Amino acid sequence: MSYMALKHMHVTFVALSVLLFVLRFFWVSIDAKVAQQKWVKIVPHVIDTLLLLSIVGLMIYRPWDAFATNKLIGLVGYILAGLVAMKATTTLVRTLGFAVALGWIAFLLHVAISKQALIG
């Protein structure tokens, strides 16, 4: 697979991951029944697994550097904050987790677009 094809797949998985995260948070926030459906709990994990695999693929093409380290730190931050946003028992903590996750997404977008490492 070419680098460009892998990069486009990666960007697609990023967009799907963020879209599903925001949608799931909204559904959970309004206590929508759709949030309890099996596919809503499974599909985001499949998308995020494909996202991680695409990152590994991209890292094969690109040597490990500060740029990759920033993306890895940002991804871990996004995942952890996303877990808080989805699993917290209070609205305040859930909302803070969501806001922090969006902050990590903004960090990742900045690093991806600017091609500048901010950490390290």
UniProtKB/TrEMBL annotation:
* Spans traversing the lipid bilayer: 42-61, 68-86, 92-113
Q: Do you know which Pfam families this protein is assigned to? A: SirB (PF04247)
> Which key words are in the record?
Membrane, Transmembrane, Transmembrane helix
Q: Which domain of life is it from?
A: Bacteria
GO CC annotation terms, alphabetical: plasma membrane
Q: Which residues form a coiled coil?
A: none
InterPro entries (UniProt xref):
SirB
Mind telling me which PANTHER family this protein's record contains?
PROTEIN YCHQ (PTHR39594)
What is the name of this protein? Putative membrane protein SirB2
What is the species of this protein?
Pseudidiomarina maritima
